[in-house]
Amino acid sequence: MLHLRRISPIGCRNPIFWDAFRAFSSTTDQSSIRKAVASILDSLSLKPGGTLVLNHGDSDVGKSLIQLAKERKLQSISIIDDKPGNPETIEELKALGGDIIVPLSYTKTWYMKRLVSELSPIAGINLGEGYQATAVGKAVADGGTLVSFGKKLPTHVVYDGADRKPIEWDAFAKSKKIKVLSI
Q: Which DSSP string corresponds to 27-73?
């Protein structure tokens, strides 16, 4: 079972949120995963027209998130690994309802900064570790929420180039005023 590492005000007030996590952590059944993901999206109180950013969109949970986001009229930005076969993966995710699918290397460009500034994702769902988690955290708008599923968040947020030094994850979250839920 997944363990709670940090509690945010969202989880404290909403028992549906924790029921969804228990269901998510104990199943591999697609319908159960979909139900758990739906409960989590409900607890985040995202409004139609809002934007959600996630990584590992090509996983079962990622695909469920993309489909549910489309059904709820949310725009999704999906970050996938850089690997051979990405064009096919991108087409598959777009067929499921994905709006914007980008490889991890794209998140390190100014194009991603521009995309994020235009769409202002209010929530992020982290399904990966290392730079994948950092990419989602950087994409979430100030004051947003980041949910990390059973993955350890990195200790530092690393920036490319010599002009910015790595900072601790907690200081990064505090500076962006994002709520972080790690389970």
A: ---HHHHHHHHHHHHHHHTPPTT-EEEEE-TTSHHHHHHHHHHHHTT
Where in the chain are the domains? 47-182
Integer Cα distance of 64 and 149 in angstroms: 14
In the beta sheet, which residues pair with residue 80? 103
Encode pLDDT of 76-98 as tens digits.
Answer: 999 999 988 889 999 999 999 99
Tokens 């930005």 found at: 77
Residues 79 and 121: beta-carbon distance below 8 Å: no
Closest to 51 in 3D by CA, of 80, 20, 73, 79:
73
Contact 38, 21 (CB under 8 A): no
Q: Can you tell me the distance from the alpha carbon of 54 to that of 39, in angstroms, rounded to the nearest whole number?
A: 16
Give, in words, the CATH class of 47-182. alpha beta
Reduce the DSSP state of residue 9 to 3 states and report it: helix
Q: Tokens 């350890």: give the residue.
A: 152
Mean pLDDT computed over every residue of the chain: 82
**Amino acid (1-letter code) at residue 128:** G
73: left (phi over 0), alpha (psi -120 to 50) or beta: left
